[in-house]
Amino acid sequence: MATAENAITAQVNQGPSFVNPLGESYYYLDDTSLVKAIAADVAALTGSQSNYDFGPTGGITPGYIDSKFLAQNLNNPEYVGDVNQCVAVVQGLDQTVGGTASWNLNIGNHLQVDLNGMGNMSILPGTPIATFGANGLYNGQHAGIFLGYGTEGSVQGFFMLDQYYQQSDQTPTNQPAEIRFHPFVTADHSSPEYFTILPT
Known about the structure:
Elements: H1 2-14, E1 18-19, E2 25-29, H2 32-45, E3 52-54, E4 65-67, H3 68-71, H4 77-80, H5 86-93, E5 127-132, E6 138-152, E7 155-164, E8 175-183, E9 194-196
Antiparallel strand pairs: 1-2, 2-8, 3-4, 5-6, 5-9, 6-7, 7-8
């Protein structure tokens, strides 16, 4: 993770950034070998090493992480919408998270990633996280793997492993699996709040 953070810092210092409509700045690290290594480490935490594919070496799309279940069900319209999306990373690297319909903050104790601009040190690197609605259910906005807290360009936030595909509200519209720096939620709560998917 330290290697990733240093590389992201160097990239940030050079100026490139992507800004989505909510005004959140995301910084991407274009290093497939490092992403592969982190993905392997995360999968090992829950014995999920054989549960995912990383394109193009067996995956669905080059650079994307998908669960092998998705790869085997490409002709099923019930699942094809998840291919290459953020949930595919989570479900591929942690076989214990289950389907998104079971992600529920009302069951058990879930940890919030951003505690009013401060980190929650109870959340360990490699933990699956996602955004949830007021009803406590996954709101479909985003999910990923928490990697740790840090600071980029004097902005505090956290690092995550994520991806998305054909999202017209994002710039770029397609983002293969990458390490992202996510600023903490702004004062007006215009950016999403993340919680651990699985109860502690």
